[in-house]
Amino acid sequence: MAGQQNYKKFISYYKPHKKLFILDMLSALVIAAIDLVYPMLSRQVLNDYLPTSDKTLRPFLIFIGALLLMYVVRSAFQFIVDYWGHILGVRMEYDMRKELFNHLQKLSFKYYDKTRTGHIMSRMINDLNEMTELAHHGPEDLFLSIIMLVGSFIAMLMIQWKLALAIYLFIPILVWFAIKQRTKMSNGFKEVKKSMAGINADLESSISGIRVAKSFANENYEIDKFDKGNMIFRGSKNIAYKTMAIFMLGMSFMTNSLHVVALGFGGFLIYKGEMSYTDLIAFTLYINNFLIPIRRLTSFVQQYESGMAGFERFMEIMATEPEIMDSENAIELKNIKGDIRFEDVVFSYNNHETVLDGINLEVTPGHTLAIVGPSGGGKTTLCHLIPRFYEVDGGRISIDGIDIRDVTMASLRTNIGLVSQDIFLFAGTVRENIQYGRTGASDEEIIEAAKNAEIHDFIMGLEEGYDTLVGERGLRLSGGQKQRISIARVFLKNPPILILDEATSALDNETELKVQQALEKLSKGRTSLVIAHRLSTIKNADEILVITENGIEEKGNHETLLNNNQLYSKLYHAQFKGYIPDEL
Ligand code: ADP
Ligand code: MG
């Protein structure tokens, strides 16, 4: 059932390119027709137009000229099939890749939590590539092959039915061998692909971790580890090429012996006077017309298998519904004051381990709420619920009294600026990375944002200024510099609500000071939610919540909490006795 649906869906990708498809098929038809008449025509030229004592050379030459012309025409159609046929496949691949990418953009955090990047990459590159091959060659091969098989079948019967039947006896054996060997071969190459994926994963992990490997002087360990995968890859290729060689050997032996049988039995029939030399020549040419489609059909079977398998994997992603979507009557969240409220919020990632259990809190517009608590207590999770990265399981979160599930995600997220500890810079220039905050922003606005984020002077000191490339993962910048670029992004975005999730915890004291200054500027006039493990940075917050695995343990401003003499004051004093734990 699912298979049939996929099949229909696959066909549907031809629809926008109907004209190209028809052009391709018609050209294939012309090619098949020419290939089918050629042996007949060559027999005729030998029978009727050879120059003899009472025939001139002229008609013979004209006929040969005409045949040459026919092949010029055939070449033109061959070009159409080879060029435009591939273009058809390429256009379909483009459509699919575009749809897949669009769909990937819609999928939510939960999907990416459980999916490996490498897998998505292989869908996007390998699977789609194989589908293109099938999309283009599939119908063409199938169509051409059937016409050629049927056509040459009839032609051979017409020339000499006894010889034709003798040849047909071979066909089932040939087809059986071809399909069996092809299957073995394709299984072999599937293993090659699998081990290739293994090598890719190993390589990715080793190269990303090369600095760690070096610091532990573990290069040899890495070399041995990589060698294992490389050996498996080599082994799988050995097997695959062996099956391929056996296939080639069998096929060439059988096709060649088919010619010998035709020659032998045909010669006998000529001797018996049941057939002429020219018949035998034409017959031999038809044998080729017969063998080529058989090869094509067997390759089609294999192509179909791997192409459809790729398409199924493609459809698997396409059929994954984004977990979080705009509700039907979603409104735009605009001109907000920034009153954030959690009411009895319950959340778990996996439906059994509850991370947040009945959280109630409120951030007054323009104020700063700080959250502290031990690692793993759920602070980041709480932050991620506000932009609806994940959906609450119970209770509700509202902004200015409006449930966040009733507003469009785009407008909700436009109103929120998130600065976290993990900074991601896209491969590109510094300018592009800041502009990411608001894609239409002008150069002046970008510079202003960089000034506000205390990073402008640094950027101007770079050789290429704002046009400096920040490597693959922004490797050439320090943590503090990267963080200030990410802060400049948020300045540019200028959202009324700000969430800072341990924005300074990965930085050393010196750079932290600069980042801290930038963040203070950034939070001015905005409703802010600040998570910090260094308590000195949140002393001035309007309110402080202490969250542990048991929920909200304490609540109040710095002074009240210190006077409470509970968890907060203990932790605060511990930090300022010179003992600063990594995590609170
Ligand atoms: P904090 O920010 O306070 O250190 P987190 O919100 O990151 O805590 O984590 C709270 C709990 O949720 C932890 O037990 C953590 O293992 C779990 N958790 C965090 N992110 C995910 C995720 N994407 N999928 C599943 N569990 C998660
Ligand atoms: Mg966290």
UniProtKB/TrEMBL annotation:
This entry's Gene Ontology molecular function terms read: ABC-type oligopeptide transporter activity; ATP binding; ATP hydrolysis activity
Q: How does it sit in the membrane?
A: Multi-pass membrane protein
The protein's matches in CDD domains, at most eight in alphabetical order, are given as: ABC_6TM_YwjA_like, ABCC_MsbA
- Which keywords, in A-to-Z order, does the entry hold? ATP-binding, Membrane, Nucleotide-binding, Transmembrane, Transmembrane helix, Transport
What are the transmembrane regions? Answer: 20-40, 60-81, 141-157, 163-179, 244-271
> One short Pfam family name for this protein?
ABC_membrane
Q: Does the keyword Transmembrane helix apply?
A: yes
**What gene is it encoded by?**
ywjA
Q: What is its main location?
A: membrane
Provide the Gene Ontology terms for cellular component: plasma membrane
Outline the extent of the ABC transporter domain.
Answer: 340-574
Compartments, record wording: Cell membrane
Where's the ABC transmembrane type-1 domain?
Answer: 22-306
For this entry, the protein name equals: Uncharacterized ABC transporter ATP-binding protein YwjA
